[in-house]
Give the backbone structure.
Amino acid sequence: MSMKHVVVVEDDPLNAMLFSKLLERRGGFRVTVTGAPEEMLRLVRAGDVAAVLMDVSLVDVEWEGRPVTGVDLCRLLKADPACAGVPVILATAHAMRGDAEALMAESGAEDYVSKPVVDHEAFVARLRQWTEREAA
């Protein structure tokens, strides 16, 4: 069984490193971290990505010359038939009751996790759930 590939779209180097290490060491995932929408799309379109972990509050990230958020990039993925079936999990530090649900509805994402990630086991289990559901 090959390692599931997770793309982490995160512009904060510390969060990117934490997500990457957790997913690789505890989850056994193959992880690609990117802050570039073009790279994210290329990887997902290639067909071997099991899930995308998407930071909601991206800073200095642009698509076609315009600043974009994780919500915008999630919509971009969901609008592309080659990418639409890949589960997107939003990562947000703004998870007040109701906020995450609104972000998911607005973006089309399948799930969300709160930052900072406190329960590492639950975080990895959540990602594993989505990557296994995708493969089923």
In short: The domain at 5-135 is CATH 3.40.50.2300 (Rossmann fold).
